[in-house]
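Q: I have 604 residues here and want to know how they pack in 3D. Can you give me a structure?
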Amino acid sequence: MKKTVLATAISSLAGGVFLSLSPFAVAQESTASATTDVMLVTATKRTDPVTNLVTPIIEISKQDITDSQANTLSDVLRQLPGVQLSTNGGPNQPSKVFVRGSDNVMVMFNGVRLGSATLGYSDISQVPLAGIEKIEYLRGSRAAVYGADASAGVINIITHGNNQETTGSVKATGGSNGYQSYTGSVAMVPSDKAWLNVTTQYQHSDGYNVAEFGDDDRDGYENSNFVADWGVQLDDSWIIRMNGYYHQGQTEYDYDPTWGPSADQNKTSNYNINGQVIYSTERFVSNLTYGNSQDKSKTQHNVPSSQTVTQRNQVTWRNNFQVTKADSIGFGAEYLNDDVSDSDTVYEEQERDNKAAYLTLGHNGEVIQLEGSVRFDDNEQFGDKTTWQLGAGWQFVESLRLTANVGTGFKAPTFNQLYYPGYSNPDLEPEESTNYEVAIEGEHSFLSWRLAGFYNDIDNRISCQSAFSTCENDSLIIQGVEWVGSFDTGPLYHQVSLEYLDPEDKATGDDAIRIARQNYKWQVGYQAETWQANLSYVYQGKRYDSGDVRLDGYSLVNLGASYNLTQQWIVSAKVENLFDADYQTAANYIEPERTYYGSIAYQF
C-alpha cells in the first residue's frame, strides 16, 4: 500500500520503527527510507528525526490537507487523535480546541503564538487553511518549552517552504448553503537562493440558522485571506525569512433575545507577521524570530458597535547544539507583550509582559531516548513561574518501545476574566497542572499501534460556566486512555483512534463541561493511479454544557473522492454528515446537516 510521509513517519518509535497516528487517508507515494529524513521542531524546539521523539507528534502535510478536501482548519483538526471541538454552530462560527479534555492548547503560526488575550484561546475559525505547507500537532504538556497555554498540547501551523521551481494552482469550490470558495497560489523562485510563496482565497456562504434561539434568518459568512512566505539563503550558514497571513471576514450569528438587545454581526480583521534570521552550521542552529499579530473583532448591527483588539508582540531566540550524534542541548529566551488598549472596553490593566528563558537536553539513542526541559517565566502580573518536563523511551525489543512523560504547566487568567466590567474576578489565580503519560508502542508487519494512559491534575482551574458569568478557581482531574493504530486490508489503508476520558471536578464529582468521555475516530483510504477516495467516521459521546444541559452523543460520517482528469486538472466531490446527524457541541448551537461540495482545480 502506498503511504504518505504522514502515514508512515509519525514519531513515537525509535531505531527506525514507525508508528502511523494520522487519521488522514493515504494519498501520496513515499518510501520508508525517505521518512527518516522528516524533521520536526515543535516538540522540543530542537530539530529531531520524527522516529526518535518521545512525545506523540503528528505531521500533516499539504498533500494530506488537499486530499482530505477540508474547507477549514477545524475540518483538519477534527480528525486528529485526542481532539474535540466546541463550535457555536458550524463553519466560521467561534470554535475552540480541546486536546485530551483540556482547552489549554497553544496554537502557533510558524512558531509564533496566535490567540486573543481577552478570550484566552485561539479561535481556529479565523485562521486560514489556504497556504499551509504542513501542521505539526503534539499531545501532552509542553509548557516547559513554550510556557503558558501549552499544558495539553501544541498545534504549529507552518507555511514556509524552499521552492525548487515555479509552480501554481487555482481552485474553485461550490456547495450547500450557497458555499463558494476561490483559491489561487503561486510558488516562485526569484533566484537560485530565494523563494516566494503567495496564496489568496475568498470564501462565501449564505449559511443556515445556527442557533435555536433568536430569529430564523440564515447566519452566513464571508472571508478574504492572504498568505505569503519569502526567504533567501545568503550563504551556507545564513537564511532570512519573512511570512504571515491576513484574514478579513464577516460572520452573522444570533444571541438569546432574553439577554436584551444584541449585535448579530461580527467583523474580524486578524493578521500575523513574523521575520526570522537563522544561522546554522553542521552542529549548531540559532533562530531569532520577531512576531507581530492582531486579533480584532467588532460586533455590530442592532446595538452600538463594540470592538475588541489584542495586539501581540513576541521575540524568541532559539538555539540548539549537537554535542554528539545522539546528544544535544537547546537553550533560548522569549519576550511576549499583550496589549488590549485599542479595545472599546476599558480594562483596569491594559497591557502585560512575560519574559522567559528555557533549557532542553536530549539523548536520541537506538535503545534509550531521553529528553528534559525547564523554563523560567517572569510574568509582569503574576510573578515567577518555573515549569519542567521529563521524557524517556526504551526500545526493549525491535518492534516494541515503552515511553513515559511527566510535565508541569500553568495558564494565566485573561483580561476578560480579570477585568471585564460586571463579569470579572480580579482574585483569580493562574492554573497549575501536572501531566503524566505512560505508553507502549508497537510496529509489526500487519499493524502499527500506540496505547497510552494519561493523568492531568489541574489546580486552580479557571472555570467559566458561560461567556457572561464570573469565573472561579476550582480543581479538575482528567484521566484517560487512548489507542491509536493503522493497518492495511488489501488495497485499503485504515487509521483508528479510540479515546476514553474521565474529566472530573474534584469538589463536585461532575464532568467538566463540553468534554465527551468517548472520542472514537476511524478513517479508511484508497489510492489508485488517477483517483483516490476516503471515508471518515467520528463518534463522540454525550457531554454536558453549563447548567447541567446534556448534549447527546453523535456519529459523523464524511465521504470524499477526487479524480485526475489530466496531470493538471483535478475534480473532487465530498459529502459531509452523510447520514444527516442532528448534533450540537455547544448548547443551543446547531451543527450543519448533510452538505455537499464539488471542486475543480488546475495545477501549473
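Q: Anything worth noting?
A: The first strand starts at residue 39 and ends at 40. The chain is about 5% helix and 55% strand.
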